[in-house]
Specification:
- The structure holds two protein chains of two kinds.
- Chain A has 14 helices and three strands.
- Chain A has helices at about 5-50, 85-95, 115-120, 130-140, 150-155, 165-200, 205-215, 220-235, 240-265, 270-280, 285-310, 315-320, 340-350, 355-385; strands at about 55-60, 105-110, 145-150.
- Chain A has a three-stranded antiparallel sheet with strand order 2-1-3.
- By secondary structure, chain B is of the alpha/beta class.
- Chain B has one domain (about 30-275): P-loop containing nucleotide triphosphate hydrolases (Rossmann fold), CATH 3.40.50.
- In chain B, about 30% of the residues lie in helices and about 25% in strands.
- Chain B is globular and about 55 Å long.
- The two termini of chain B are about 30 Å apart.
- The chains are: A mainly alpha, B alpha/beta.
- The interface between A and B is medium-sized, with 22 and 26 residues.
- Chain B: It comes from Vreelandella aquamarina.
- Chain B: One of its GO terms (biological process) is phosphate ion transmembrane transport.
Chain lengths: ~400, ~280
């Protein structure tokens, strides 16, 4: 029995309505996800960007005999509450090291306290009305200004808000990531090569495979406990050190790299392997000369993404002690260090208002590093993508 | 049957008086001897008691319907079946007086003497030059750069590809056309100077003109190499092969001089197949 077009369209209308409805629902979901992302970034940017600027005061510094004993003597008394303690504190030291400066004076830009900074940025602060008036006056005279915050990028953590910076955490992160990469990349890639290219397919290898997949799904804090128990307590690796943190994160990154590498190896067509076996390659030559070069872009992308994941990890590092207060950039892999997410965590717990923007600023730095890493992974994949 | 004697048309020994038209003088140097070869994929038997002798500097074609075991048999000759974990092999495949399946035979050494060309052209994703030079360098056949250049040129000339690629040796092998890629794969196989070249349906992915080129090439190459080729194309077997073996359900039904086989097949099954009644 045949149907006319009218009958068919009648029935089709209902189906078209249904798919249109589904389309709108999914677009709504996408829009909502996008909205959350925009809100998150807007919030972070509005809170974090001010952290890249800091209040500075331009005033006369008098390097007198008294100032070499008490730094406060170098300034006008009404300025003392406005200038950062760190500036005042170093003056006697500076004069002791350079006695020829005594008796001179100069006009220079100095770090203001975080209260001044917060006042200028319109945030909550603890300044008195007289101090506020004083600042307003100096702002009008061009002697107080917001300038690029060199301290934030150029120094380590500090309990004095205006003096706190992210450098020691950045260096700590780099050192930790070096350890993580050096351990997890070779071990992960070789494990994957064995499982994919050499191992027989039997119960034992299947068991290993299941366990590796499970390992990738384990809460990261457990890796921290493992790192604490094995690396620190058993092997005596120094606590809080990039070595301990890096080894712990390597455990966490290992399954990610193994899985990524196996996927990359599997995507190399068998025809290439057959061709190589056909000209008399040994198994290792097949892998080294033919399969691995083709799988490399995939392996690299997977590893970079695994590394980026490890870089943002906080929980296991808290357990191995990398949330310590680290004012100085650590010089070796066995010295105490901190990492960016741990630094952000520490700052978020500080009561002072000025640390709120430090926290957001730290997040911005971490995010931009992560985004650039991921972008690098994408570029790498695009660049080495090959047809065969 | 005396297992030492060359096996030729097991059921019906060829009439001695019958003229071997074009390979009378070349035909009887033994290259590979196969006796009672059985092969199982897991529990299913794919090859059933094969006996066949492959002759040097001849083209032997393996024909038969899909799934008859001809490709499986071909892969027994350079032990490519080793790569499939569930495969179990019994019987003798003898080359140069040695059992290729014996424990002391290194499959790498075997593949050095028995090269292979695959159904789909599979050049390495490297330059044309590297495609040829890689294997000889790996086998230490060449050490000096000049020798290597010479060998690459010779292999490409033998494969009839030199004039087409001599100006773009550094371009990727995958940039060539399908037929050129297949000749590149042949050049790659002959560059290590093997005794035998196995070809697994080498022209099935190619257009008719490229196919004709490869067929001409096979005719030339048999002056230097023993060629065993699997083909689905009966005309191709008739054109290029000196000997033809007809496979059916894992058995060799008939093996004979190609001309004899195609003019007066001894078996009913062979006749049905080559006349296109099934396949």
């Amino acid at each position: 029995m045949s149907h006319s077009f009218d009958e068919i369209s009648q029935q089709l209308k209902r189906r078209h309505r249904k798919s249109a409805r589904l389309k709108w629902i999914s677009m709504g979901a996408l829009g909502l996800a996008g909205l959350f992302l925009v809100l998150f970034f807007a919030d972070m940017l509005s809170k974090g960007l001010p952290a890249f600027q800091q209040a500075y005061i331009n005033a006369e510094v008098r390097y007198t005999e008294e100032a070499s004993r008490d730094g406060r003597q170098a300034f006008d008394q009404d300025l003392i509450p406005l200038i950062s303690r760190t500036v005042v504190r170093v003056i006697p030291l500076q004069l002791r090291n350079n006695p020829e400066m005594i008796g001179t004076s100069e006009q220079r830009w100095m770090l203001a306290t975080s209260e001044v900074d917060q006042y200028l940025k319109g945030h909550r602060n603890r300044l008195s009305d007289e101090e506020k008036a004083e600042i307003d006056e100096r702002v009008a005279a061009g002697q107080v200004d917001l300038r690029f915050n060199k301290t934030f990028f150029g120094s380590g953590d500090s309990k004095i808000a205006e003096n706190a910076g992210i450098l020691s955490a950045v260096v700590g992160t780099i050192m930790t990531m070096i350890v993580t990469l050096l351990i997890s990349f070779p071990i992960g890639v070789m494990t994957a090569i064995y499982l994919e290219e050499f191992a027989p397919d039997n119960r034992f290898t299947q068991l290993i495979e299941i366990n590796i997949n499970n390992l990738a799904a384990i809460p990261s804090i457990l890796f921290g406990l493992l790192g604490l128990a094995i690396f620190i307590n058993f092997f005596g690796v120094p606590r809080s050190s990039p070595l301990a943190g890096g080894m712990t994160l390597a455990l966490m990154t290992l399954p990610v790299i193994i899985i990524a590498t196996r996927t990359a190896l599997r995507s190399v067509p068998d025809s290439i392997r057959h061709a190589a076996f056909g000209v008399g390659c040994s198994r290792w030559q097949v892998v080294r000369d033919h399969v691995l070069p083709l799988a490399m872009p995939g392996i690299m992308t997977g590893s970079i993404i695994g590394l980026a994941q490890a870089m943002g990890e906080t929980a296991p590092l808290i357990i191995v002690g990398m949330v310590a207060f680290i004012p100085d950039v650590s010089a070796s892999f066995t010295q105490a260090a901190t990492v960016m997410p741990a630094q952000i965590f520490t700052w978020s717990g500080e009561p002072e208002q000025a640390f709120v923007e430090k926290t957001a600023g730290g997040i911005l730095v971490l995010l931009s590093v992560l985004i650039s890493l991921n972008a690098f992974a994408v570029v790498l994949r695009k660049k080495f993508e090959r047809r065969w | 049957m005396n297992s030492q004697a060359p096996v030729m048309n097991q059921q019906h020994a060829p009439d001695v008086g019958q003229p071997y038209t074009r390979n009378e003088q070349a035909c009887h140097d033994l290259s590979i001897r196969v006796r009672d070869l059985n092969l199982w994929y897991g529990k299913s038997q794919a090859l059933k008691g094969l006996n066949i002798d492959l002759f040097q500097k001849n083209v032997t074609a393996l024909i038969g319907p899909s799934g008859c075991g001809k490709s499986t048999f071909l892969r027994c000759l350079n032990r490519m079946n080793d790569l499939i974990p569930s495969v179990h092999i019994e019987g003798l495949v003898e080359m140069d007086g040695q059992d290729v399946n014996a424990g002391k035979m290194d499959e790498v050494a075997l593949r050095r003497r028995v090269g292979m060309v695959f159904q789909k052209p599979n050049p390495f994703p490297k330059s044309i030059y590297e495609n040829i030079a890689y294997a000889p360098r790996m086998h230490d056949l060449v050490s000096r750069k000049a020798d290597q250049d010479e060998l690459v040129e010779k292999a490409l000339r033998d494969a009839g590809l030199w004039n087409e690629v001599k100006d773009k040796l550094q371009e990727p092998g995958t940039s060539l056309s399908g037929g050129q890629q297949q000749r590149l794969c042949i050049a790659r196989a002959i560059a290590v100077q093997p005794d035998v070249i196995l070809m697994d349906e080498p022209t099935s992915a190619l257009d008719p003109i490229s196919t004709a080129t490869i067929e001409d090439l096979m005719d030339k190459l048999k002056e230097q190499f023993t060629i065993v080729t699997v083909t689905h194309n009966m005309q191709q077997a008739a054109r290029v092969a000196d000997y033809t073996a007809f496979f059916h359900l894992g058995e060799i039904i008939e093996y004979n001089d190609t001309k004899v086989m195609f003019s007066t097949p001894a078996q009913k099954k062979t006749e049905d197949y080559i006349s296109g009644r099934y396949g």
